[in-house]
Write a structure and sequence with these properties.
This protein is 65% helix and 0% strand. The protein is mainly alpha-helical. Helix 8 runs antiparallel to helix 10. The radius of gyration is 20 Å and the shape is globular.
C-alpha cells in the first residue's frame, strides 16, 4: 500500500473512468439500435457494465465529498443540497423533454405506458411497476433511482453523526441487498431498490475509506487490476439471475481501485479530451436516451439496411451523442448548476458524480 496525497484532491483517473463508463453505455444502447434495425436480438450486452463502473465511482466520490462535512454544522442538509443540485435540474429537464416528445412524436421515443402516478414517480426517483417493470419515463433513469437512494443513506448517516459514514452504510446496504429476496412484484417501490447492485456503491465506499486512511494499492497490483478488469467486464456473459454485483461489480471495483492506485502516474498522461468527456458524462448519459430512439425510428422509416450501412450508422450515432452531450453540458447543464439557488461552492472533480 502507498501513501497518497490528501484525499480531497481531484482524481483525474476517476474523471477519465467516468468518461469511459458513459461511452460504454452509449455504445451498448447503439448496438441495441443496430440489433433492432437488423431484426436480431444480438447486441453488445457488456457495454451495460458502464453502469456498474458508475455505481462504484459514485460510492467512491460521495464518501470523499461527505468526509469533510462530518464535523461541520448541518452536514446532512449541506450534503443533500449539493447532491440535489448536481443530479436533479438536468434530469428534470431531459425527463420533461422526453415526456413532451411522447405526446407530439410518440414513435420517436421509448414507449411511455404509465399513469400520472408514473410520471410523478419518475420525477421524484420512485420506482413504479409498469407492465411488470419499474422503469421511469427516461429509460436510463432507473440508475438514478439507485443513486438517489444511496444519497439518502449517506444523508442519514451524516444526520446521525455516524463517523465515519462507512460504519452506517456497510450494515444498512448489506441488509438492503439481502432483503432483495422479498422484493417481489406488487410490493412497495422501495423494495425494487433493495437490490444486490447496491453493493457496487459499497465497493466504492470501501475504496474511498481506504484512501481517507492514506492507503491505496501499490503500482504492481494496480496495473494487474487495470489490465484484468476490462477483460472480465468485456467477456463475462450475464445470464438471467446471475449475480451482476459480482460478475461486473467486482471487476468495476478493481478498475476504480487500480486507477486510484496509479493516479500520480496516469493523471499527467490522460488526454484533456477524455477529461472533458468526463465533465460532460452526465449530460451524455441523459441525452443519448433521447437521441438513439429517435435515430432508430428515423432509420427504420428510411428503410436503412445492409450490415455496413447499419454499422456506419451506429458509429455516426455515437458521435452525434458525444457532440450533443458536450453541447448539452456547456449550454444547459453548467448554466443550470449556476442558476440553482445555493450558497455552496462547486466541488472538485472528486466530489462530483
Amino acid at each position: 500500500m502507498t501513501q497518497p496525497k490528501p484525499a480531497h484532491r481531484s482524481f483525474v483517473t476517476i474523471q477519465a473512468l467516468r468518461a469511459v463508463a458513459a461511452l460504454l453505455v452509449v455504445v451498448h444502447h447503439a448496438s441495441m439500435m443496430s440489433a433492432k434495425l437488423r431484426h436480431t436480438d444480438r447486441f453488445w450486452e457488456n457495454g451495460a457494465a458502464g453502469v456498474d463502473i458508475f455505481f462504484v465511482i459514485s460510492g467512491f466520490v460521495i464518501i470523499l465529498s461527505a468526509a469533510p462535512l462530518a464535523q461541520k454544522q448541518h452536514p446532512a442538509r449541506t450534503f443533500l443540497l449539493r447532491r440535489l443540485r448536481r443530479l436533479v435540474p438536468m434530469y428534470w429537464v431531459v425527463t420533461s423533454v422526453e415526456l413532451l416528445l411522447t405526446f407530439v412524436a410518440p414513435t420517436f421515443t421509448t414507449d411511455l405506458r404509465g399513469s400520472p402516478l408514473h410520471v410523478i414517480s419518475s420525477y421524484f426517483f420512485w420506482p413504479t411497476y409498469i407492465d411488470g417493470g419499474a422503469g421511469p419515463i427516461l429509460s436510463v433513469g432507473w440508475t438514478l433511482n439507485f443513486e438517489m437512494l444511496f444519497y439518502l443513506l449517506v444523508t442519514l448517516a451524516l444526520a446521525l453523526r455516524v463517523v465515519p459514514p462507512v460504519r452506517f452504510l456497510v450494515p444498512v446496504i448489506l441488509c438492503l441487498a439481502a432483503s432483495s429476496h422479498w422484493a417481489e412484484q406488487g410490493h412497495l417501490g422501495i423494495l425494487t431498490l433493495a437490490s444486490p447492485m447496491l453493493l457496487e456503491f459499497l465497493y466504492g465506499v470501501l475504496i474511498a475509506q481506504a484512501v481517507l486512511q492514506g492507503k491505496t494499492l501499490g503500482p504492481i497490483v494496480s496495473c494487474i487490476f487495470i489490465a484484468v478488469a476490462p477483460v472480465v467486464l468485456f467477456t463475462t456473459v450475464m445470464h438471467h439471475g446471475a449475480p451482476r454485483c459480482l460478475l461486473w461489480g467486482l471487476p468495476a471495483a478493481a478498475l476504480v481501485a487500480g486507477s486510484v492506485g496509479l493516479e500520480s502516474f496516469l493523471a499527467p498522461r490522460i488526454p484533456s479530451a477524455l477529461q472533458e468527456l468526463g465533465d460532460s458524462s452526465y449530460s451524455l448519459y441523459l441525452i443519448h436516451a433521447l437521441l438513439l430512439p429517435a435515430i432508430a425510428e428515423s432509420a427504420a422509416r428510411l428503410h436503412v439496411h445492409g450490415e455496413v450501412t447499419i454499422a456506419l450508422l451506429v458509429w455516426v450515432s455515437v458521435l452525434v451523442c458525444l457532440l450533443c452531450g458536450e453541447l448539452s453540458y456547456r449550454l444547459l447543464e453548467r448554466p443550470l448548476l449556476t442558476a440553482w439557488p445555493s450558497r455552496i461552492p462547486r466541488q472538485t472533480v472528486a466530489a462530483n458524480s
